[in-house]
Amino acid sequence: MAMNTQGRPSAPLHTPDPGAYDDTFSGSRGLDQAEPLIFERQTYDKSGVDFEAPKGKPSRLGALERTDDLGLPGLSEPEAMRHYVRLSRKNYAIDIGLYPLGSCTMKHNPRLNEKMARLPGFSDVHPLQPQSTVQGAYELIGELAHWLMTLTNMPTVAMSPKAGAHGELCGMMAIRAALDARGESHRRRVLVPESAHGTNPATAVQCGFFCDEIPAGPDGRVDMEAFKGKLGDDVAAIMLTNPNTCGLFERDIRAIADAIHEAGGYFYCDGANFNAISGRVRPGDLGVDAMHFNLHKTYSTPHGGGGPGSGPTVLSAALAKFAPLPFVIKDGDSWRMVEDEADAKAQGAEPFGRMVAFHGQMGMFTRAMSYMLSHGADGLKQASEDAVLNANYILARLKDVMTQSYDGLCMHEALFDDRFLKDTGVSTLDFAKAMIDEGYHPMTMYFPLVVHGAMLIEPTESESKASLDRFCDTLEALALAAKAGETERFTAAPRYAPTKRLDETRAARQPVLRWTPASADTKAAE
Amino acid sequence: MSTRFTKDHEWIRVEGEEGVMGITAYAAEQLGDVVFVELPEVGKTVSQGDELAVVESVKAASEVYAPVSGEVVAVNEALEGEPAKVNESPDAEGWFVKIKLSDKSQLDAMMDEAAYAEHTK
After folding, report:
1. Contact (CB, 8 A) for A474 and A493
2. ipTM of the shown complex
């Protein structure tokens, strides 16, 4: 039979050690292209589109006519395309691999959600088009609101907040409005556990409250005695995350709710960790007065890289009427938006004001609704259970080589500290950088602050057992390498990332916030 | 007079009516590289335990509390441009604030060097 002797081997016969040829002439490594900032190209004379210079019309700008160049980078279409695609290839995303960032719920975003969000009736609506033409969008908002109220057993939800912290602000403004309406504006103290998300105290202060910190007990939960000792007639509210930032369920939450209510305050619950309890626990049953959702975490709308958030906020009967404008209602057979205070008052509401120009994030609403309908009520419950199971699997597999911060089971995230790195010369930061070399985005580190050198891992329900095993194998190998004295593997990491260890200290001490040309004669390039 | 320490890792050294204070070497080590220090205004009156300054490192921002009651008579303005002094020399050049003490007896309840060394073990 005829053989093709011109064929080439499809596998390399040997892989030489790069040795002295560790650097390349071009600065690119393999097919990972080096890419400068768009301004560093210093090309100003090109454009992806050719416009003819206007003819026959005298300029009416007079003395306002621009005399110097704008200095915008000029790129042809393929150059612009390559610039952004090359940068995107240096990015890390949930679509590339496990993203164990604790307290962030980086889960898979089902493509069905994307398909639904792109339906023209949802994606092409304009906030100012006639209400009769957006009935379907309004109905979707109403249906999603129904699901959110059902999941929480709460009577009202403000749909307009645009992200988690915005939802917190909504909840705390509703609490402040309720206190003012009661004639108890003197209540200004807000109790915040020391493990709280940083946005909690920030929100309270933004609303004119001041914070009083509640210490954690030895089990990582709210110290009930310390909490009760802080109650008084100047207390406005408690802000609590459940499960808390240590990944632990606050078992005393009912007693906390009762005590704060008895003291005349309200209970704000941070919903950032709702992925652990969605479909299993209804915050309304726990005595919560306000809680925001992060649709972009719990209900799988993409948020990595600064994608849009969405923070609908449920309110209890005590706070319901203070919900902000605008909101959607069913009026007879059709839906409409309540836009102004007089209209709201006619509905029996006392809105504290308005937080947004229009009505929240339609694209995120559509994705969240698609996620909920495709999962069903039982599916949402299953997702939470799997998220908790996955976190406990990681905890069980790693607690003998790493150090678990609090005994017992965790909820949706596993918390470790740096005791296992004691005397190794490896810090939490070094450990995280070594994970990058292994192809994993690091976990949340140095947070929560209540444990030393924290490493907070949230795998979410998206990961299979095989994926969790690969991750745990890697972390186990790293932990053993650190203990075996392979310090340089960590202190020199990352070795394989596009950029090596960044000088965070210098970046913080001497931040360069604005690009400036390297040389003064840049203008000469015009 | 010798240096006294708080459980929150401030030190204070008193000469006459005035005390100079900063954060301890242990605290500076724990914080990591300090990138920013926010100091109070001269003339401010503080009570023991009040928030006196804020120190920010690459890891976290932390409050520094007044170890004693009194009036702020001087602040270490050099820290504004060179926050690294807090790491390099926490107990000398990296001082934060000078306070005119209003109640010297507060020093009695604070730790001496040996007790503080025990506290941070």
Report:
1. no
2. 0.74
Strand partners for B13: B3, B20
Which residue out of A211, A427, A455, A505 would a mutagenesis test of the B interface target, given it has the greatest number of B Cβ atoms within 10 Å? Answer: A505
Taking residue A400's Cβ as centre, other Cβ atoms within 10 Å add up to: 11
Burial label for A44, CB within 10 Å (0-12, 13-18, 19+), is middle
Q: Give CATH for domain B3-101.
A: 2.40.50.100
CB contact under 8 A, A504 and B58: yes
- Report B:35-74 residues touching A (Cβ under 8 A): 35-36, 56, 58-60
Tell me the shortest Cα–Cα distance from A492 to chain B, in angstroms: 18
Answer yes or no: do B58 and A449 touch at CB < 8 A: no
B29 neighbors B83 (Cβ within 8 angstroms)? no
Asked if A505 has any chain B CB less than 8 Å from its own CB, the reply is yes
Each residue of A337-360: pLDDT tens digit? 999 999 999 989 999 999 999 888
3-class SS at A267?
strand
Of A323, A369, A334, residue with least CA distance to A151: A369
pLDDT in tens, A197-254: 889 999 999 999 999 999 988 898 999 999 999 999 999 999 999 999 899 999 999 9
Band (A140; pLDDT cuts 50, 70, 90): very high
pTM, two decimals, is 0.86
* Region at A511 (left for phi over 0; alpha for psi -120 to 50; beta for the rest): beta
Mean pLDDT across B80-102: 94
Q: What's the mean per-residue pLDDT of chain A?
A: 91
Q: What is the mean pLDDT of residues A250-278?
A: 96
Extents of the domains making up chain B = 3-101
The DSSP line for chain B is --EEE-TTSEEEEEETTEEEEEE-HHHHHHH-SEEEEE-PPTT-EE-TTSEEEEEEESS-EEEEE-SS-EEEEEE-THHHH-TTHHHH-TTTTT--EEEEES-GGGGGGSB-HHHHHHHT-
Res. A12 pLDDT band, cuts 50 70 90: low
Backbone angles phi, psi at A186, to 5 degrees: -70, -15
Residue ranges and CATH numbers for the domains of chain A are 112-370 (3.40.640.10)
Q: What percentage of chain B exceeds 90 in pLDDT?
A: 83
As given in the structure block, the two tokens for residue A372 are 């909920």
Question: How far from chain centre, in Å, is Cα B68?
Answer: 10
**Chain B residues whose beta carbon lies within 8 Å of the beta carbon of residue A504:** 33, 58
In a 10 Å sphere around its CB, with 0-12 CB exposed, 13-18 middle and 19+ buried, how is residue A176 labelled? Answer: buried
A407-B120-B12 Cα angle (round to 5) = 140
Contact A508 B60 (CB under 8 A): no
Chain B contact for A57, CB < 8 A? Answer: no
Contact B60 A449 (CB under 8 A): yes
Cα of first residue to Cα of last residue in chain A, in angstroms, is 65
- Tell me if chain B has a CB within 8 Å of the CB of A511: no
How far, in Å, are A49, A128, A191, A192 from residue A213 at the CA level?
58, 45, 6, 5
Q: Which two tokens stand for residue A387?
A: 């998220």
Asked whether the beta carbons of A350 and A318 are under 8 A apart, the reply is: no
| Contact of A140 with A147, CB cutoff 8 Å | no
Closest residue in A to B84 (Cα) is: A509
